[in-house]
Structure of Helix-turn-helix domain-containing protein:
Amino acid sequence: MSEFLEKANQVIGEEKVKQLRTEGYIAAQIKVRRQELGYSQQQLADKTGLQKSTIGRIEAGLNSPSLTTLLIILEELDMDITVRGRDTLLV
């Protein structure tokens, strides 16, 4: 584990670090898929009915989408995400 992650574990706790890593993974996968489809953030926002700023903040890891918002995005991008951890979430 990197020195940064070790310090983060000490400061905010291992569970919070795991949560942040999972959220970052999801955000990255959304951005990659959007780009694969050739959509701009504005185009994805228009297709989903969400604000462009919402898409941008999710992709930047600044906001964690609600499950409803996440499902709307995943549906439009025609993608599934598997998150593994203590429990497995299949979306």
Notes: Strands lie at 82-83, 89-90. The first helix runs from residue 3 to 12. DSSP finds five helices and two strands in the chain. The chain has a mean pLDDT of 86.
